Amino acid sequence: MEVRGAEPGKVSHSWRYPRPRGGARVARIAMDSAERRASFPHGFAVVDVETTGLRWKTDRVVEVAVVRTDAEGRVLGELSTLVNPERNPGATHIHGLGAEDLAGAPRFSEVLAELVHYLEGAVLVGHNVKFDLAFLAEELGRLGLVLPDAPRLCTRELAMRVLPGLGEYRLSSCCKALGVDGGHEHRALDDARAAAGVFAGLNKTGFWRTSYERELAIAAGVAWPVIEGPSRIAARGEAQASAEPSPLGLMAASLPEGTSNGSVEGYFSVLDEILEDRRVTEEKADLARRHVEAAGLLRGDIVAAHRAYLTGVARAALAGDLGGGLGASDLARVARLLGLPADSADQALVAARSGAAAPSPGSTRPLRPETSICFSGDGEPSKAALEARAVAAGLRVQGSVTKKLDVLVIDDPHSLTAKSQKARAYGIRVLTVPVFLALARLSDKQ
């Protein structure tokens, strides 16, 4: 893909996009889109995508947003949806989306009809718009389609012309210079809104251009495909909000009410085993149920044990001083897996800070010296930092997953990397990063 002869702030029509790929199956398409365009007057479509990485040929879109405006820049509508990339989500520490968030999200083909509705008839605008449109073009190419050659404008290139002394032209820098609310970086809708604000602010200066009549006229004549059939849209947070109840929570709710005189120490060992990869399957919940029934434990015992275990997780997070929200997100995840209310994570932190008695999660399944370990993912802490921590704990770091590997550490419980899939197929022990860090600290004390 390339742009030839494009000057900063000017529109180029010489983009090359992938040709349709054979064998792709999509809904029937009609190229006459005049009827659909009637719902939006001619104007601009400010686009932003969040992706698994920076390579448009191999990486995938995980979130897309469009802010549709009229020719004067007034906002007419907004579209924002997660997209299931059908692979690992990539740099979760940047866009904040994990595999769990995207597992139930629509595929690109399922959002395409609504996306086209917001793009057609418009001049396409974005901050480094080449990046965003390259990814959209590739996603369309996977479906046997070609992104129409609509006019496009780059707010970054326009800012370089209008604000020559700014020096640094990140979206956040342009927002600051123009007094635009940048929202949360690397959230598609916030970034699209910010780019729309920058575009409007740059045009108000009158330094470069205030009218795009030619581009608007060209955009009005561009034919876009009409994708028949319903769209499925899922905004951030909807996947978690609609998540199925935790199997552990359902198990606890099904127990007889009351408390017993039985010991829950053995149950903590069971929780260590089934929670260390931060995924609870029906099979794991059944393992917990069999232990509970054999021990004669009741609902009150298990709910109290879950709260105590969560306090232990909170204490481990505080002891590790986990940054970047890693400890908080892990605590919230464990609370959900245990079937506890959303405010239980905050309550566990309060209890942990007060010194309340709690088990040490993972203490029944320590990492022994010379354990072979491998790391998968590109989150934070970095893989290099995690490997250094493993060496300091006396573990043997491997670069790949083999049948002889003892432990794989993943940065997301629902990781779809080749390493994680191979490890689960081989029955290799899998830990998440917070669990590994907690176990490494326990190893230091041995």
UniProtKB/TrEMBL annotation:
CDD domains: DEDDh. The keyword Hydrolase applies. It holds the Pfam family RNase_T. Keywords: Exonuclease, Hydrolase, Nuclease. One of its GO terms (biological process) is DNA replication. Residues 43-208 form the Exonuclease domain. GO terms for molecular function: 3'-5' exonuclease activity; DNA binding; DNA-directed DNA polymerase activity. It comes from the Bacteria. DNA polymerase III is a complex, multichain enzyme responsible for most of the replicative synthesis in bacteria. The epsilon subunit contain the editing function and is a proofreading 3'-5' exonuclease. This is Exonuclease domain-containing protein. It comes from Polyangium fumosum. The lineage of its organism: Bacteria, Pseudomonadati, Myxococcota, Polyangia, Polyangiales.
